[in-house]
């Protein structure tokens, strides 16, 4: 082993044991403050919106593993450098690990929910890494055979300990972090109607397939026994409800389509589920709203803020604090134990997951997380439609081909869907039945396909009579517009 290689491997091993011990400590003592995840979360918050959009678009749900792996590589490179430089000058070890700890601690404090104790894992990581590196480099003296052997033994020891600590952290996270999702669900006072007959397959999105969009690097694990919801701000009386108290209130059950503002035309971030929850309006009225208030800021356990117009809780729509999705308690990744849901608004403006408090305030007084990043306040869903069949670039046989998809304009409803082949005349598609205006509409169109390449476009008309906007717009800042068009080649 060359001297550089020894220094570098000592650095990486020392960083590894430092981080692994800190992860183990965090798993036991501060579940939300594992050093890698904390740094990752800080990176996400600091990332400019276009880059974030790019990552979500290109990497989908792999965006977070890729981020964590990148952070791991950067840390490893840095540790290798400290290891190499530290061989010559021991103070480099102290300075290098101190900087490493300080960066982690700063990241922890920069979190919306960060408190001083959250810096402990990073400080621990730095201390353990520094001491280990000092000790390991002490084994590299003159390159005698015994020296070399004892260095390698030390290195193996450290690497083994790091693997053990990391394994321990995983086990602790899995057992301590396990939460009860076996809530007894109350019977709704206002149950959902059975889905109309003739509804197509795929109308309800299975929870396991439901898209997930959030900034949480690890899914928050909320203990339902200690969870409570605080309603405060511009209200007459502050309210605090335990989960049992929330579940004791009259419940509604509704089929509602939820979609993400960052969905591209034709994109996958949309789904429909049957939700069970407590209507928000009566709760707010019980708290007593001050006259000037126009915004509810929902704050989640991990510090996300989502700003929703108060009007949407009072105008008769089914805005709710949802506790169940498709007949089972919310899955952790969809907001267990309680999330908001506002029919007609994109998720970033009405669907806070893992909600912990609702602050009644004004739009003038507070910018929620995405609004601070220049997404439009309000978040009303735009009328849109998507072709799901045939798939783009499919090669169907000539003859009758079923073109099918969905269209949505939650709250306004969909009154028409039209298909156009190769820029020709718009033809009406058949609409399948829906339970309400708050869900997507499935549509289909029988196309007499002729041989050759063809383009297929779709556009919807909503309940106000407005035709879906043709002009292409990016999802930022208020949702994509444009007609979904695909190309197929008929064989
Ligand atoms: N706490 C929290 N809630 C959140 C988010 C988030 O990042 N954190 N993302 C929002 C966005 S942008 C969307 S589109 C919906 C997605 O909900 P889902 O993941 O259950 O589909 O959650 C919303 N609620
Ligand atoms: Mo979203």
Automatic annotation (TrEMBL):
Protein name (database record):
DMSO/TMAO reductase YedYZ, molybdopterin-dependent catalytic subunit
Residue stretches spanning the membrane: 66-85, 92-110, 122-140, 152-172
Tell me the PANTHER family matching this sequence.
Answer: SULFITE OXIDASE, MITOCHONDRIAL, SULFITE REDUCTASE
The source's domain of life comes to Bacteria
UniProtKB keywords: Membrane, Transmembrane, Transmembrane helix
Q: Which GO terms describe its biological process?
A: sulfur compound metabolic process
Q: In which organism is this protein found? A: Actinoplanes derwentensis
Q: Which InterPro entries match?
A: Ig_E-set (IPR014756), Mopterin_OxRdtase_euk (IPR008335), OxRdtase_Mopterin-bd_dom (IPR000572), OxRdtase_Mopterin-bd_sf (IPR036374)
What Pfam families does the record point to? Oxidored_molyb (PF00174)
Please report the stretch or stretches of sequence annotated as the Oxidoreductase molybdopterin-binding domain: 217-370
| GO MF term list | heme binding; molybdopterin cofactor binding; sulfite oxidase activity
